[in-house]
User: Which sequence fits this backbone?
């Protein structure tokens, strides 16, 4: 390998090693345990814009949004928040998600962290 290629490889590797995920950059940390999830998220109002919902301690999801009433079920499975819900007439099938929290705000990423990111919700 030439000196130029070696220098380029080192520069590329250094750039990738310095990449910070958006969650880390904003102070969000992943919630990995049921105890943390229950103490930080469950039973609190999660609000974003005109939408608000609560993950009830009994596993129910209740709330409202411009799309209609929010109803569903949730549980904690092996490090993931799993939920199935309906907003108005639209069904959202079961999905297990990674959860991130910064002390006052929360968001999740579908398909066990490989899917779409939810909006950021304030936790009240």
Assistant:
């Amino acid at each position: 390998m030439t000196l130029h290629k070696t220098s380029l490889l080192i520069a590329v590797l250094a750039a990738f090693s310095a990449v910070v995920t958006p969650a880390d950059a904003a102070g969000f940390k992943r919630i990995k345990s049921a105890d943390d999830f229950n103490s930080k998220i469950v039973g609190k109002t999660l609000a974003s814009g005109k939408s608000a919902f609560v993950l009830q301690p009994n596993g129910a999801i209740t709330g409202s949004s411009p799309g209609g009433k929010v109803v569903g079920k949730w549980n904690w499975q092996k490090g993931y928040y799993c939920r199935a819900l309906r907003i108005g007439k639209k069904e959202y099938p079961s999905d297990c998600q990674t959860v991130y929290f910064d002390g006052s705000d929360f968001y999740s990423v579908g398909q066990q962290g490989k899917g779409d990111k939810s909006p950021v919700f304030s936790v009240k």
Remarks:
- The chain is about 25% helix and 45% strand.
- Confidence is low (pLDDT under 50) at residues 2-21.
- The chain has one domain: 22-123.
- Residues 3-17 form the longest helix (15 residues).
